[in-house]
Design brief:
Elements (H helix, E strand, L loop, with lengths): L1 H16 L12 H20 L8 H23 L6 H10 L6 H15 L5 H14 L2 E7 H10 L1 E2 L4 H4 L2 E2 L6 H8 L6 E7 L6 E5 L8 E5 L2 E2 L5 E4 L20
Antiparallel strand pairs: 1-4, 2-7, 3-6, 4-8, 5-6
């Protein structure tokens, strides 16, 4: 065990140099030691929770691994009083791995983590979203029955049954997906989720909101070419019957 190994190192130094080391002797490097240990513990946890990350190429794997570790460090470090590097320092560290990400992009992903995935500790779901965002930029999602998806694949284009009456395809942003699924499709079997990069959609996308709180949803005003869909995945439920965000999203069909 690592902790046993650290104790062994301390004891050997004391024996060889005939000294007694106390916590005060480690005060100067304590913060760095704690941060390194937290960092490596987060990486180890990610490896267990998101095993499919190891199928990605080196650059994408590094980007996701470091981003998720950072998100965990911030949350766990806060609860333990452990200082972590600033956002600016972290982005510079990523650049050493040839991973380019702007502060705006990082803050967007951090916000998604805090709003959508941290409460459930859903590392796999966050990884699936972050991979889509890093590859394609802004993405939206559409929920549909499996049979509708199969029909769309046969036709090469997706036009929902209510397109004639409503004039658009209902979509959701990441923070809306599970709420919409549980509100409208909880009794429906075999629902699927499509991941759609905004830049691939040819029809107009309007953000409209019928709700009094002003929340807006993306609506696609036209049939959806299947080239705009980068991944499709079943929407599974937890033991309480609530939908879960797909933790693999078929690894974006790569």
């Amino acid at each position: 065990m690592l902790l046993d190994r650290l104790t062994e190192i301390k004891k050997l130094v004391e024996k060889e140099l005939s000294v007694v080391l106390t916590d005060e002797d480690f005060a100067g490097g304590r913060e760095e030691i704690e941060h390194i240990f937290l960092h490596e513990a987060c990486h180890a946890a990610i490896s267990h929770c998101v095993p499919w990350m190891h199928t990605l190429d080196g650059k994408e794997h590094t980007a996701l691994d470091e981003l998720l570790a950072r998100f965990l460090e911030v949350k766990i470090g806060e609860s333990l009083g452990i200082l972590v590097h600033s956002t600016e320092e972290f982005i510079k560290e990523l650049q050493r791995y040839l991973v380019e990400i702007t502060q705006e992009e990082f803050e967007h992903l951090l916000g998604v983590w805090e709003v959508c995935f941290w409460q459930e500790k859903d590392l796999a779901g966050m990884a699936a979203y972050a991979l889509a965002y890093l590859r394609y930029g802004k993405v939206i999602y559409h929920i549909l029955p499996r049979t509708d998806w199969e029909k769309a694949q046969e036709n090469g284009i997706y036009t929902p049954a209510n397109m004639a009456s409503e004039g658009f395809i209902h979509c959701s942003e990441v923070q809306q997906v599970i709420r919409v699924a549980n509100a409208y499709y909880s009794a429906e079997p075999d629902m699927w989720l499509l991941c759609i990069p905004v830049k691939r959609v040819e029809p107009e996308i309007r953000y409209e909101g019928p709700l009094e709180d002003g929340e807006k949803f993306p609506h696609i005003y036209g049939p959806l070419d299947l080239d705009a869909v980068v991944a499709a995945s079943p929407l599974e439920k937890d033991e309480k019957g609530k939908f879960l965000f797909p933790g693999e999203l078929q690894v974006l069909e790569s």
